Amino acid sequence: MEESALQWYAVKVFFNKVFDMESALTAQGYATYLAVDHVLLKGEAHTQARRHIAFLKADGKTDTRYIEEGPAIFQRIPMVSSLLFVRAGEKEITALDESFKDATGGTKGFIYKKRDSEGRFVCEAIPDCQMEAFRLITSHGSEGLEFFSADDISRFATGCKVRVTDGPFKGAVGYVKRIKRNRRLLVAIEGIVAVVSAYIDPRLLEAM
Q1: Cα–Cα distance measured from residue 132 to residue 38, given in angstroms and rounded to the nearest whole number
Q2: Around 200, how many Cα atoms within 13 Å sit in the side-chain half-sphere?
Q3: What distance in Å separates the CA atoms of residue 198 and residue 169, rounded to the nearest whole number?
Q4: For residues 39 and 77, is the Cβ–Cβ distance under 8 A?
Q5: Which pLDDT value is given to residue 168?
Q6: Burial (0-12, 13-18, 19+ Cβ within 10 Å), 205
Q7: Distance between terminal CA atoms of the chain?
Q8: How far is residue 194's CA from residue 93's CA, in Å, rounded to a whole number?
């Protein structure tokens, strides 16, 4: 499938199985994105993780919650609980959504949906510009960031639309918000989640 035919979709994952879902989708050849912090483990937490990883390696397995960098071990902590993104084609995503249902009538999760012009629920593709901005903001860690649900976003009036021209968030497009008296950048994936940066220097912003 051509890259242009692929789009990002948001997956709500149940039962705290977001890492299992990430691994399963990756094994099927899908590109995924999970916003995570990397926490350096120390003391007993490091010792336990080292034993756990060694035990899995002996059985030919891995645990994607952990990253080894020499003797250091980092634990991946989701920034937004149970939220994963997957890139797929329009036909693939519908089949994937169905595959999350099991024979007992339960479900592992679902693809976020919207109503089409005929009132049917269809999987909702995320515009690349929104996904790219969200990834830019979250890829540097969650320090100073705040996350809001789709319902919470409505509490903030739309501000000036801007593009970040320099710094770690260069290229991100969002809205300037004054929250707790600070000028901050809000990036939203409409209907799903929004992230607000720490204070951002207005000299790094270009009005659109």
Answers
A1: 20
A2: 28
A3: 11
A4: yes
A5: 87
A6: buried
A7: 33
A8: 23
Question: Which residue's structure tokens are 């639309």?
Answer: 161
Element (H, E) at 110: strand 109-111
Residues found in the chain: 208
pLDDT confidence of residue 1: 45
Positive or negative, the Cα torsion across 66, 68, 69, 74? positive
**pLDDT tens sequence across 38-68:** 999 999 999 999 999 999 999 999 999 999 9
> Rounded to an integer, what distance in angstroms lies between the CA atom of residue 102 and that of residue 108?
8
Q: How far apart are CA 202 and CA 164, in angstroms?
A: 9
Q: Are 123 and 111 in contact (CB under 8 A)?
A: yes
Is 86 in contact with 22 (CB distance < 8 Å)? no
What's the helix, strand, coil split of the chain in %, to 5? 25, 35, 35
Helix and strand numbers (H, E) in the chain are 5, 15
Query: Residue 142: what are its φ and ψ, rounded to 5°?
Result: -90, 0
User: Do residues 147 and 79 touch, judged by C-beta distance below 8 A?
Assistant: yes
